[in-house]
């Protein structure tokens, strides 16, 4: 016992000495990345080329090379871009960093890597053969639309292939999932477990037995809880977080906005803060020294909307703002996904082999609201009064109508003139709502990848030609001077700004069909939606979103000028270098 006490005392003394030393070192030499002073010039040999003088992360002056010569000194580095194109840093206004991090190391069975049902399940069976007994097998990307002959897994099949491993599959849409019996056993869910709600449930066969299907966010939550404690170890978490942040930057994103953070406690917030905040925390720096947090480098700014069921993790008030890392609002879901039948529609899905037999959407099905109107009304009142920005998932026309109606009712008692509350995804955003949306100061963020990746299926098999021509009415919203944004909904699709821009400009599906020709944007419109308007949407337009004197030096160097290439090559433009706060991020 004495030896144990002595050893414990030595450890405590070591920790205290380390803490005191690190605290003194932290206060004397803060581990900052943000000391810089340089001039970025488009072409050093052309005196009238545009140039920027950057000091400590901000744009001090913009002018010609001649005009900025006065700033040149031995402490100022001149960077010659040799005529390359420079644009403001892109802002991803709706992404899912925590889920992207979680899925980054998972097995990919998506349509991006597999072209047939046979390929998908052959790959899965190889994964099982190489797995250790008892190891969790997590796969992502299951999608019967991108892989058009795909047969979703049954629990019987999964149990036969993986009797000794818990298995969990994520659909590409991230709205439905599949698991085998071993996984259900671990999370203590069986045929008698009550469904979280009518719209979020565990699928059953005609005998009342679990069939492996898991639908929507509340139903998958128990699995997330287990995976975060048993699968995503501290080391994996650190590596995945750094990797995903770097990928955002490589694609030209200088700011990301997490729309509904999926976490259970405040521990991940310490990691997120450490990755993006300008000023590191003492505890974070200590944990970095001991390898419990990644080494700090320049990462994208990170702003977050907390999930409605994780509101207890939010700050008590919204009195101050951080320009690099902050919780800025809260998100709720009013409907779900077009690809599992949970999008809420005015008119039913059309009957087809895809809708009825592959996606198992019943005849005459219109979807339903995931929460009742009174519940949503109370939610909006509570958080609006606390001065939080509200984001609501609205895919279908019925969903958009209901949410706009609720805001209109509440306008009699609440002031929305400066609120900038958001409507997320807007696949079937009804044009007749646009004037009301403007009056209520609502701002939409459109999931434009619906058109490119799923436009053909939507037209032929899910909502029909007439409605498919009306999806994502970008030009109609723009023409009413409503600020809006575009997003990829990563990890559903990679956060690639120029893929979004090309789709918004061309309105073409992956097969080359055109949907909603009259809703095309110009290239400049599309770029603005991902820069200045995206900054406005998160109340940061005075600090980021454009290259102006006094703003942060967030910009991207491109290999081609997007205003001078054929529109069908926009998605091939490469981001050569990404600068955030004047620092190279990739």
From TrEMBL:
Source species, domain of life: Bacteria
Boundaries of every Amidohydrolase domain copy: 77-583
UniProt xrefs under InterPro entries: Amidohydro_3, Metal-dep_hydrolase_composite, Metal_Hydrolase, YtcJ-like
Name of the molecule in the record: Amidohydrolase
């Amino acid at each position: 016992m004495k030896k144990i006490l002595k050893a414990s005392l030595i450890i405590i003394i070591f920790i205290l000495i380390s803490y005191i030393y690190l605290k003194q070192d932290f206060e004397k030499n803060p581990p900052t990345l943000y000391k810089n002073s340089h001039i970025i010039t488009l072409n050093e040999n052309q005196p009238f080329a545009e140039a920027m003088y950057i000091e400590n992360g901000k744009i001090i002056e913009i002018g010609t090379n001649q005009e900025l010569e006065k700033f040149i000194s031995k402490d100022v580095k001149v960077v010659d871009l040799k005529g390359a194109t420079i644009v403001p840093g892109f802002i991803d206004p709706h992404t899912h960093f925590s889920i992207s991090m979680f899925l980054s190391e998972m097995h990919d069975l998506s349509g991006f890597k597999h072209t047939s049902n046979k390929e998908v399940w052959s790959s899965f069976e190889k994964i099982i053969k190489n797995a250790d007994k008892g190891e969790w097998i997590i796969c992502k990307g299951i999608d019967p639309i991108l892989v058009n002959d795909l047969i979703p897994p049954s629990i019987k099949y999964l149990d036969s292939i993986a009797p000794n491993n818990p298995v969990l599959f994520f659909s590409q849409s991230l709205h439905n999932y599949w698991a085998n019996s071993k996984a259900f056993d671990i999370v203590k869910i069986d045929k008698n477990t009550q469904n979280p709600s009518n719209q979020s449930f565990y699928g059953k066969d005609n005998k009342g037995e679990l069939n492996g299907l898991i639908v929507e966010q509340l139903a998958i939550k128990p699995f997330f809880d287990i995976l975060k404690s048993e699968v995503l170890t501290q080391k994996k978490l650190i590596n995945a977080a750094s990797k995903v942040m770097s990928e955002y930057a490589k694609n030209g994103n200088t700011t990301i906005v997490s729309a509904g953070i999926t976490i259970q406690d405040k521990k991940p917030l310490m990691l997120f803060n450490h990755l993006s905040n300008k000023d590191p925390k003492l505890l974070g720096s200590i944990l970095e020294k001991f390898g419990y947090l990644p080494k700090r480098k320049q990462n994208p700014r990170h702003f977050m909307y907390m999930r409605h069921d994780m509101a207890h993790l939010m700050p008590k008030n919204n009195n101050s703002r951080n320009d690099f890392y902050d919780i800025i609002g809260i998100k709720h879901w009013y409907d779900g996904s077009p690809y599992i039948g949970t999008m809420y529609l005015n008119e039913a899905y059309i009957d087809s082999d895809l809708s009825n037999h592959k996606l198992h959407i019943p005849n005459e099905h219109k979807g339903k609201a995931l929460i009742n109107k009174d519940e949503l009304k109370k939610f909006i009142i509570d958080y609006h009064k606390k001065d939080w920005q509200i984001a609501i998932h609205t895919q279908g026309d019925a969903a958009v109508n209901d949410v706009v109606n609720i805001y209109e009712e509440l306008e009699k008692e609440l002031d929305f003139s400066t609120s900038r509350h958001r409507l997320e995804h807007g696949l079937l955003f009804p044009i007749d709502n646009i004037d009301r949306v403007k009056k209520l100061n609502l701002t939409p963020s459109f999931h434009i990848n619906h058109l490119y990746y799923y436009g053909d299926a939507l037209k032929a098999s899910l909502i029909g030609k007439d409605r498919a021509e009306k999806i994502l009415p970008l030009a109609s919203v723009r023409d009413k001077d409503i600020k809006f944004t575009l997003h990829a909904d990563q990890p559903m699709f990679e956060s690639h700004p120029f893929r979004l821009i090309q789709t918004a400009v061309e309105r073409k599906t992956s097969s080359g069909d055109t949907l909603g020709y009259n809703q095309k944007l110009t290239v400049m419109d599309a770029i603005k939606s991902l820069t200045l308007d995206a900054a406005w949407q998160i109340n940061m337009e005075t600090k980021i979103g454009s290259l102006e004197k006094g703003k942060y030096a967030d910009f991207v160097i491109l290999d081609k000028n997007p205003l001078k290439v054929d529109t069908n090559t926009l998605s091939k433009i490469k981001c050569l270098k990404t600068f955030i706060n004047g620092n190279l991020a990739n």
